[in-house]
Amino acid sequence: MNGWRALRRSGLGWTLLAVFLVAGYLFPVYWMAATSLKTNAAVYASPPQMVPWPPILSAYREAVFNNPLTLRSILNSAIVGLGTMLLTLLLATPAAYALARLKLRGATVAILLLLITQLLPAIVIATPLFVLFSRIGLINSYPALILANTTFTLPFAVIVLRPFFLTVPRELEAAAQMDGCTQFGAFVRVIVPLVQPGLLTVAVFAFLMGWGEFLFAMTLTTNEAIQPATAALNKFIGQYGTEWNKLMAVATAVAIPIIVIFAGLQRYIVSGLTAGAVKE
Amino acid sequence: MRRAMFTATKVRSLTHRRVLHRWDDYLFIAPAMLFIVLTMIYPIFSNLRMSVYDVNVATFLSNTAPFVGFDNYLKVLQDPAFQKAFLLSVIFTAGSLAFQFTIGFALALLFNRSFPGNQVLRALMLLGWMLPSVVSGSVFRWMFDGGNGVINYALQSIGLMTFPRFWLIEPQTALLATIIANIWVGVPFNMILLLPGLQSIPRSLYEAASIDGASSGQSFRYITLPLMRPVALSVLLLGIIYTFKVFDLVYVMTRGGPVDATTVLPIYVYQLSFSFFRFGEGAAAAILLLLPLSLAAIGYLWLSQREEVMA
């Protein structure tokens, strides 16, 4: 009984419970990776093989490494993700600064507009953008996808960044301007470096959103040379039928950059999530 | 010196506020606003416009569609498929939210305690939410597979089922399977948004209650629940908005099928425009999809505005 009480006091009992729940929660992620490392025979084994032993890379070889379509689509996703990230930072940083610091007429309306944009369903934007981009010949291009993705990352970025600018002491700007900086010069050289954590949060999110976006990928591209990995994975569902190890190999390949970025930068992701979603 | 600087900035900010609306200040925000106008205001108006014209595959590029008034809206509203899609969306949203929220709340209560490894475990849970929904959709498609899916195996081995089910092929179970997958995606989101609300409840309240002899159940009922109401309400409204517009996950798992058993509203809109190329009706359906969302959005914005004033 004493041991039980000690366990309670240290909180290790809660740790145990949490480990158990989180492990159970993450089972689908494990199952994806495990299936991708199986042979065809092992995929259909009954009862299912819980640990892929011996792990085999043949599904990756066939569906990822030796499939130019998959490799191309992963490269496309990287380009679209990075493009979305850059465009978002470029547009959102000065806008968030202006909304935090400068007294603008209509600032409230602007913030409201951004909030509403974030809540729109992608399908409402996809059709008009498809019509617009078809008319100006932008279908099947990286800019089409980057522009469309930024519709959702921009409001998020401004909302996350604005509070960071609010915490920068006003005296710093005044001092920089007294030293002969223009307002824009003070912004670029003095203010922006101070909000680096916020910029990193926004950069990570914009990249992840651009990487994982699906509806625009499907509606604004038809050309396999441009199509992102999410659209490619969706096509493989029909193509691979029941060759689940291959489908899971592609799914894992699409997920790995997310998992790596997540592992390295989770601090920024958690803070971004809470900052961007609940509080304005 | 310090004081002088303070007054200098104060005067400056006052002149800013009252007299000078310097035009170059607007250059900071102009690009972002221009972008929003181009990619959000324009699409909404273009949707509204398309919804009163007969835009189809023959007329959409040439811009010669005839004006048809509210015909598209009438057609969509009278379409049994639209009515079914609306109903499915409501069931999908209610079913997902009820469990996402309850499980998320329970996990938030767990992670609100301090124990070793709390931060790391909490962050790990977010992975489910961060994965692209095409990836999670593919994984759940595989787990719900009728032939070799691990869910059939688990349910059969604990004796809950005698025969394997073809979850995504049988109309009675396909929606249930997509709801379960969506609950999985949404739990960490609810958990992470509810946690700050729990953390902001002063510990002294619980201490006072326990001195007065309140049980932990009573503390939960009379302290936690009432104080969590505003946060819970805004998380639920946000959840309604995000769940009502789910497209990717369901589309990847079922394509809206079997037949139309999982054709929720966003999939219905997508099919009108991109499978049947009836853009006019698609636009009308998109506007109809926006209506319930706008209500939830207005509620959410109103609520967060009020909280801001109170805080």
Task: Please explain how this structure is put together.
The complex is a heterodimer of chains A (280) and B (311). Chain A has 280 residues and is mostly helical. In chain A, 79% of the residues lie in helices and 0% in strands. Chain A has two domains: 2-58, no CATH class; 64-277, MetI-like fold. Chain A has 15 helices and no strands. The relative contact order of chain A is 0.14. The model of chain A has no long low-confidence stretch (mean pLDDT 86). In chain B, helix 4 (80-111) packs antiparallel against helix 10. At the A-B interface, helix 2, helix 3, helix 6, helix 7 and helix 8 of A face helix 1, helix 2, helix 4, helix 5 and helix 6 of B.
Defining traits:
heterodimer, A: 280 residues, mainly alpha, MetI-like fold, 2 domains, 15 helices, B: 311 residues, 13 helices, 0% strand, globular
Task: Give the DSSP E fraction of chain B (strand runs of 2 or more residues).
Answer: under 5%
The CATH C-level class name of the domain at 81-277 in chain B: Mainly Alpha
Q: Could you spell the SSE succession of chain A in H and E letters?
A: HHHHHHHHHHHHHHH
Quantity of strands of chain A, as a count: 0
CATH topology of the largest domain in chain A: MetI-like fold
Structural class of chain A: mainly alpha
Q: Radius of gyration of chain B from the CA trace?
A: 25 Å
CATH architecture of the domain at 81-277 in chain B: Orthogonal Bundle
In the CATH hierarchy, what is the superfamily of the largest domain in chain A? Answer: MetI-like
How many E strands of chain B?
0
| Overall residue-averaged pLDDT value of chain A | 86
SSE map:
The complex is a heterodimer of chains A (280) and B (311).
Chain A: H1 2-10, H2 12-25, H3 27-36, H4 40-43, H5 58-65, H6 68-101, H7 107-119, H8 122-135, H9 142-166, H10 170-178, H11 183-194, H12 196-212, H13 215-220, H14 229-240, H15 244-277
Chain B: H1 2-18, H2 26-50, H3 71-78, H4 80-111, H5 118-130, H6 133-143, H7 150-157, H8 171-199, H9 203-211, H10 216-244, H11 248-254, H12 265-275, H13 279-310
Helix pairs in contact in B: 2-13, 3-13, 4-8, 4-10, 5-8, 6-8, 6-11, 8-10, 8-11, 10-13, 12-13
